[in-house]
Amino acid sequence: GMDVLAVHSAAQEAVARARAGEGPTLIEALTYRFRGHSLADPDELRDQQEKEYWFSRDPIKQFKTYLTENNLVDVAELTAIDQKIEELITEAVEFATNSPEPGSDELYRYVFAEG
């Protein structure tokens, strides 16, 4: 779960199995949560050494290193991608913040459970 390429490989195998009619595949992808459970969780209970160990194995950082070391992308391209992502996030937050609160008539919209 912490290795982007390993997850991709496992997913490719699962897709191939499914397309071959061999049924579904369960992929267990173990990961590490880098922050507390929520904004209310200051994440003070985990040991700092544990956190540092896992931060050094950050799958995004490792994948960026793989891409640049194998000349698949350069740092400028990755920086541009990061900037675009930040712009999209900023736009989405602004849209959400500036949007009106939904009315009570929206409460059950998109709920697909029969009661």
List the helices and strands and how they pair.
Elements lengths: L3 H16 L28 H8 L3 H11 L5 H24 L17
| Average pLDDT over all residues | 93
> Quick one: overall form?
extended
What is the SS-derived class? Answer: mainly alpha
Query: Can you count the helices?
Result: 4
User: What is the H-and-E element order?
Assistant: HHHH
What's the alpha carbon Rg, rounded to whole Å? 20 Å
- The low-confidence runs, each spanning 5 or more residues with pLDDT under 50, are none
* Subunit arrangement of the protein: single chain
Which percent bin holds the helix content? 40-55%
Number of domains: 2
What distance lies between the first and last C-alpha atoms, to the nearest angstrom? 37 Å
Task: Estimate what percentage of residues fall within beta strands.
Answer: under 5%
Main sheet: strands, sense, barrel: none
Task: Tell how many strands the DSSP assignment holds.
Answer: 0
